[in-house]
Structures are given as C-alpha cells and as structure tokens.
Fold this sequence. Notes:
6-stranded mixed sheet; 7-stranded mixed sheet; mainly beta; about 10% helix
Amino acid sequence: MIQVSDLPGKSLISLADAATLGYIANVWFDSKLQRARVVEIICDDDDRPERSYADFAKITCEGDAAVIPSAECLKSEKSAIASTPCPINRPCYNQSGKSLGTLRGILLENCNTVKIVCENGNFTPKELLSLGADLCIFNDTGKPIKIVRPKKTAVQTVAQAAPQASDAPTQDAPEESGVQTPPPPQAVTVSHAPGEPVKNYSFLLGKPVHTAVMHNGATLIPAGTVVDEEVIELARKYGKLVQLALRAF
C-alpha cells in the first residue's frame, strides 16, 4: 500500500543512470480519483528540466526514495488522462453539507485508489459525488445518489459568429449610408501551454520548512516556518516555489 501524502518531497532516482532526477512534488489522478496517473517531478539541477512528469505505473514508491527505470521515462508534459492534482488538504462535505474535515490522505494499491481518508470518515472513489478545485463532496449514506449535472451549452466561437465571405457585402451593394462594413474579427484560440507549471501547491500546507529559502543572499522563508497560504504566495512572488517544495516536507 502507498500513502500519497508520504510522496511529496521524496527523491526520485534512476536505476539505469544511478542518479537523482529530482523530487516528487505532486501526484495527478483521473477526474474521479480512481487511479493515480502521473507523478510530477521538480528539480533544482541546472542540467535538468525544472519540471517533468512520469507515468505513476513506472515508479516504485515503497522505499526511502522513489525509483524509476531510467531518465528516459520522464516527459516534458503530463498525460492528458491525468486531470486532477492530489486534493490533500481540501475541505470535504457530505451530500447534506455536513463538514467531514479536510482530506488527509489517499491510500493506493499499485495505481488504484483503495481508500480516501478524511478527518471524519473514510471513503472509496465510488462514494465521491463531486470534486472541485476547492472542495470534495462524498456520499456517506451507503446508498446510491444520482447527481443532476447541468447540461453543457454549445458556445458559439468568434470564428463561427463571424460572417462568411458569402455574407459580406459585394462591390455592387448600395452605398447609401456611406458607412463601410469593418472586416470580421479573427478567431482567437486560447490554450494552456504544454508543461505549464502547476499552480496548486496546497500539498505543502502545514509542512515545516527544514532549510531556509534564500533570495539574493537574504533569508526569504526561515527554517522552522510552517507553510500556510501566505508563505506559498510569498514563494510564488519571488519565484521560489520549487525551492519551497524541496525544503518543506
């Protein structure tokens, strides 16, 4: 059995290279927390990428360090099937709004979730009613509950809304108004860049900083500090989130 909360901060070593590739920062799951999909790795070595990803199935996590067959298993971006960062420390409620405390851990057997541990109860993925960016909702009735989810509404894109060439006025169109029709707007596609840094560092909350985080020779976050939201935002402001994750465990 693997307790996910024990993984952040654990070093990742390569068997083939006999080298440390970085440290585990987070574990990504599918949308229903049924299976651990991807391990997120951070590294402060200038010769290696600051952030990389590996399939959870390729990593052994039962010792003092996590082990991977070789550095070739690391990827520059996470798999599309991994959509949910580990929700540890998120508030949990039941279907009636009763607080279940915070999510304290996820117990895995191989890659599969066996138990989700909250302060006031343990659950299986089948009892997870819904999962959001800020909280989790569990069914503690022991009976199936059907959630009515809103239907997705088709959104017309700018490209679809723009008039087609056949709809545009021709040269023979009357010019009584004297007002020229502006050209149609160009379609704009917004997407997340591959390997975009993960913004959720909630897995660090409540952990002590064992080695001071420095900035320009001065102490930014002293050793012994217990990480809270203000500490995370301070590290983010000065670009020290990686160093904080390496020093707080």
